[in-house]
């Protein structure tokens, strides 16, 4: 983070992050730097994390159900394609297992990708998730992975935690808009995202 009196340089450009299939199976931070110690991510495209949203005319108005392949969900609480879903549960009840199942099923049934964005995660939580995804084949270091991971961890400044969700969103939007893929965007968790925004507001004296 910055401290008072430190010299800074205005680049005149927004934060840009790598996008595309090269990000699958990799872990990056808020500014698109790899943090998985597997070398640089060489992509053809870099997109700014601040972009104009699609207009209403560009958005689909059709009400479609996204088949998750998890029978109890599809029967009792079906997910709307393009909608938003909140998962609430205590520690150790299976939220991560459920997320991994969703990622697997979407990849197999629809050929789609997923982007997992960890906001304010503990380092241990991120390590556990990465290890579990490798064990279940969601991340394949030798072949095709199904998910890109973006982390703004608990020890990072609030500015990074408040913007890391936009980094994950930018990667997901590229798959949606440029490759026409079904994409699941996970943000874990939304409370720490809003908390980071509150911290930034306090630092700005608002």
Automatic annotation (TrEMBL):
Residues 69-206 form the ATPase F1/V1/A1 complex alpha/beta subunit nucleotide-binding domain. Keywords: ATP synthesis, ATP-binding, CF(1), Ion transport, Membrane, Nucleotide-binding, Translocase, Transport. SUPFAM superfamilies: P-loop containing nucleoside triphosphate hydrolases. Its main location: membrane. One of its GO terms (cellular component) is proton-transporting ATP synthase complex. It comes from the Eukaryota. It holds the Pfam family ATP-synt_ab. InterPro entries: ATPase_alpha/beta_chains (IPR050053), ATPase_F1/V1/A1_a/bsu_nucl-bd (IPR000194), P-loop_NTPase (IPR027417). It is found in: Membrane. GO terms for biological process: proton motive force-driven mitochondrial ATP synthesis. GO terms for molecular function: ATP binding; proton-transporting ATP synthase activity, rotational mechanism. It catalyses: ATP + H2O + 4 H(+)(in) = ADP + phosphate + 5 H(+)(out). Belongs to the ATPase alpha/beta chains family. This is ATP synthase. It comes from Cyberlindnera mississippiensis. The lineage of its organism: Eukaryota, Fungi, Dikarya, Ascomycota, Saccharomycotina.
């Amino acid at each position: 983070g910055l401290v008072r009196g430190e010299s800074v340089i205005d680049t005149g450009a927004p934060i840009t992050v790598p996008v595309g299939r090269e990000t699958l199976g990799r872990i990056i931070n808020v500014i698109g730097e790899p943090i998985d110690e597997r070398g640089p991510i060489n992509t053809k495209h870099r997109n700014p994390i601040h972009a104009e949203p699609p207009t209403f005319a560009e958005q689909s108005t059709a009400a479609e159900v996204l088949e998750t392949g998890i029978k109890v969900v599809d029967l009792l609480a079906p997910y709307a394609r393009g909608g938003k879903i909140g998962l609430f549960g205590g520690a150790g009840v299976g939220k991560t297992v459920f997320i991994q199942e969703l990622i697997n099923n979407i990849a197999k049934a629809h050929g789609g990708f997923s982007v997992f964005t960890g906001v304010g995660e503990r380092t241990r939580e991120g390590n556990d998730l990465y290890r579990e995804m490798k064990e279940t084949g969601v991340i394949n270091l030798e072949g095709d992975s199904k998910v890109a991971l973006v982390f703004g961890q608990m020890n990072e400044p609030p500015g990074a935690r408040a913007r890391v969700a936009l980094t994950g969103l930018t990667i997901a939007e590229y798959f949606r808009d440029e490759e026409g893929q079904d994409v699941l965007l996970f943000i874990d968790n939304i409370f720490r995202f809003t908390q980071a925004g509150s911290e930034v507001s306090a630092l700005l004296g608002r």
